[in-house]
Design goal:
This protein has 749 residues and is of the alpha/beta class. The protein has 28 helices and 26 strands. A hairpin with a 6-residue loop joins strand 22 and strand 23. The protein is globular and about 80 Å long. The N terminus is likely disordered.
Length: 749
């Protein structure tokens, strides 16, 4: 692994003060508040959270110093000078909110936690659920050899990455299911805890037993025994011990008794250093271990099913969520003809218990055409999504044609679906807001080139898992995204991307279809930017002496980050031309008095205790344009066509899109999925929800109501907060229930 060293590149206070005087950040209506409660880190010596200029300095310096040339002996002063100039450009780009790295980078880059856990810079990961060796990884069960395949390994990888705050996609397609060996052993699991533990009573209620009482009757040699250290690794290894005892290859002696000792796990509410937040205590882990053991014991002398394998992953995700600050994001990928997998969420009891923890999709190829059952399931519960692995393996952008095995090791995707990934590989994201960048007079080629170089450096982080290091070194995959696409296209062209449809026939079946007609100016715009990204990657790769990136571009959903700049999210249409966006805060949050003082409506949350809801009136860019469309009225056909446009001319990875549909559009889902099976790599759908419940996160309103709400607002929240609190903040305060991506698929930080 590459060792981190002291920064060789830094930005001076003089430079930062000059930028602050010259550039005004393009905050959206929710921008500064969202930033302050999502990405501003606590500064202990100042007893407050960061200000935006401090966050951007931390992020840029943390990234620029990943350049491997700064980690060599006798660093070239010319390299330092060039990287310093680049850091200044990056600082201006991000400070003005013309672009941002991923939410993970905004939170972690430039922190000591990044130096210890390079994985933390990446939002999401993918792993195939099948026996795999741990290799040279930071987590390694002591009973295994490094090259020994183990059923526990992919679950350990998943557990570890989720606990670091990342999301994980995982595959339980039939090919993987068939590689899981027979469950050989029934395991008698005992969980013990010492009386001195502050979690003693609560743990006993979850099924643990008194440690002294147990060992009065049993010898430590009667069972496999593991005393968990109070670390993330300890939690992961306890689960590994449990899983591997069930299989003969990792339990050759046939040991059937396992004792896990929770005595050292910190109590509920204790502070978590590094990542932040508070501990959950051992209780969620205890519940998870008993639940997983129950699944495995029920399958003794039989094989696990895809549903069993998904349930284990969901139980891990549920446990991570219980840790308070971390948000589990999972995508389970099953086979398109696996009826049990497709319908597993119809079991309401198990759905409420743990199956809510993943979004589920099915893997298809372009030959697959039986979309009727999938469409029917989507209309009932919004799942499954579809992932076309054949297209991902053999195509970049669709316009570039068939490139056989250009990405041969792709097995799945991240939870949001915008990046096709091989086993153990992460997504690596940066996004430009071309609508804002153009207003700030950025050369868009340069803005996208800076983002490309930012993401390329992330691939040189010190990754913890061997399977990841190998995939990253080989592929150097990056995902340069654009957001606010609808705002940008309307601003530049005065119309949307799809300007009409023409009669055509399905090239395989001959069935009549409506082929979209795209604005040729839009094609030229995005094609030119794609080529700028590829050139920037080639140039930087030559400088670094590494592989060029296997793929370069994407469109991510961009929920929270898009709010910073106040642009439409990813490729999605604005929710409504005018709306009330509601944000939930802890009732002790010092931002609330500032919001009230500025005239924002704040009221108690009707669903949760100790929670307040603040209302923000929002007007979408170009809301009154005749060409404006929102999620509430844009057709399902145009959404499919817009995703196909971006997959054809911009993204060589994939395009994350949650297509919204009205009740009367349900019969179009299957035909449109079939029509775009040769183009679209991943798609998910959800019914459009307007104002159907109280205090909804987004409520469409009329222009007159918007004007009335705006007239009640006065003053600047940031300045008012600084005046009322002396710029002193509350440690650990955050927006409640905020998610980084559309549909809540990916974690915030």
């Amino acid at each position: 692994m590459q060792a981190m060293k002291l920064s060789s590149v830094s930005l001076s206070d003089e430079f930062i003060n000059r930028v602050k005087s010259e550039i005004t950040p393009h905050w959206g209506e929710l921008g500064w508040v969202t930033y302050k409660r999502t990405y501003a880190r606590w500064i202990p010596e100042k007893q407050r959270t960061e200000n935006w200029d401090e966050t951007v300095k931390r992020v840029v310096e943390g990234n620029i110093n990943l350049d491997p040339r700064l980690h060599q002996n006798n660093v070239d002063p010319q390299v330092v000078s060039e990287l310093t100039d680049e850091a200044k450009k990056l600082y201006k780009l991000i400070y003005g909110l013309a672009a941002t790295p991923s939410g993970r980078n905004l939170w972690i880059s430039g922190t000591p936690y990044e130096a210890r856990n390079g994985d933390a810079l990446n939002n999401c990961w993918f792993i195939g659920i099948r026996p795999q060796p741990y290799g040279d990884s930071h987590i390694m069960p002591e009973y295994l050899k490094k090259d020994q395949p183990a059923v526990s390994m992919p679950y350990s990888f998943m557990f570890d990455q989720l606990m670091k705050g990342g999301g994980v996609g995982f595959s339980v397609v039939k090919e993987n299911v068939h590689k899981i060996p027979l469950v050989n052993n029934e395991v008698n699991l005992t969980i013990v805890i010492d009386k001195n533990s502050k979690s003693y009573d609560a743990s006993l209620k979850m099924g643990a037993v008194d440690k002294d009482a147990y060992f009065e009757k049993h010898s430590i040699t009667d069972a496999a025994y593991y005393r968990l250290p109070d670390t993330r690794e300890g939690w992961v290894l306890s689960n590994a011990h449990l899983i591997d005892l069930h299989f003969a290859s990792t339990n050759p002696k046939g040991q059937k008794n396992l004792v896990l000792d929770m005595s050292d796990i910190r109590e509920k509410g204790a502070k978590i250093k590094g990542f932040g937040g508070t501990a959950s205590g051992p209780m969620p882990l205890i519940e998870m271990l008993f639940d997983i053991n129950k699944i495995l014991n029920a399958r003794v002398r039989r094989h696990l099913s895809s549903v069993d394998m998904t349930d284990i992953g969901n139980m891990i995700g549920k446990t991570v969520v219980a840790g308070n600050v971390r948000r589990s994001a999972e995508l389970a990928l099953g086979s398109a003809d696996d009826e049990d997998f497709i319908t597993m969420k119809q079991d309401q009891e198990k759905l409420m218990h743990h199956r809510w923890a993943s979004n589920n999709s099915v893997a298809v190829d372009s030959k697959f055409s039986n979309y009727g059952p999938i469409a029917d399931s989507i209309q009932h519960n919004g799942e499954p999504g579809i992932v076309n692995l054949e297209l991902s393996k053999n195509y970049g952008r669709k316009i570039d044609g068939l490139q056989k095995d250009i990405d041969p090791n792709v097995e799945g995707t991240n939870p949001c679906g915008e990046i096709s990934l091989s086993n153990g590989e992460p997504c690596n994201l940066f996004e430009v807001f071309p609508y804002v960048a153009s207003q700030q007079n950025w050369d868009l080629d340069e803005a996208f080139a800076l983002g490309t170089r930012f993401s390329k450096r992330v691939t040189f982080s010190p990754y913890d898992w061997e399977v990841s290091r190998k995939a990253i070194k080989k592929n150097r995959r990056i995902g340069i995204s654009m957001s606010g696409i609808q705002d940008w296209i309307l601003s530049e062209l005065g119309n949307r991307v799809v300007v009409g449809y023409e009669e055509a026939k399905d090239p395989e079946t001959g069935e009549a279809i409506k082929k979209p007609i795209y604005d040729k100016r839009a094609v030229k715009m995005v094609d030119g930017l794609y080529k700028a990204v590829v050139k920037a990657d080639k140039d930087y790769s030559d400088e670094l002496g590494c592989n060029t990136s296997l793929k370069h571009t994407t469109v991510k959903p961009s929920g929270t980050v898009a709010k910073l700049a106040g642009v439409s999210e990813g490729m999605h249409f604005h929710y409504a031309p005018y709306l009330i966006q509601r944000i939930r805060f802890q009732d002790s949050d010092p931002l609330l008095p500032a919001l009230k003082a500025c005239g924002y409506h704040v009221e108690k949350d009707v669903y949760s205790k100790n929670t307040m809801v603040a209302e923000f009136p929002i007007r979408a860019a170009h809301a009154d344009s005749k060409a404006f469309a929102s999620a509430g009225n844009v057709s399902i056909a145009e959404q499919f066509a817009t995703q196909a446009f971006l997959q054809t001319y911009w993204s060589d990875n994939a395009v994350s899109c949650t297509v919204t549909f009205q009740p009367d559009e349900g019969d179009q889902i299957a035909p449109l999925m079939k029509q775009y099976r040769f183009t679209t790599k991943s798609t998910s759908l959800l019914p459009y929800v307007g104002n159907e419940f109280k205090q909804a996160p987004k409520e469409p309103i009329e222009p007159k109501v918007y004007e009335e709400k705006v007239m009640q607002i006065h003053g600047d929240v940031q300045r008012t907060f600084e005046q009322l609190s002396g710029n002193h903040d509350q440690k650990g305060a955050e927006i409640i229930g905020q998610t980084d991506c559309e549909g809540g698929a990916c974690p915030i930080k």
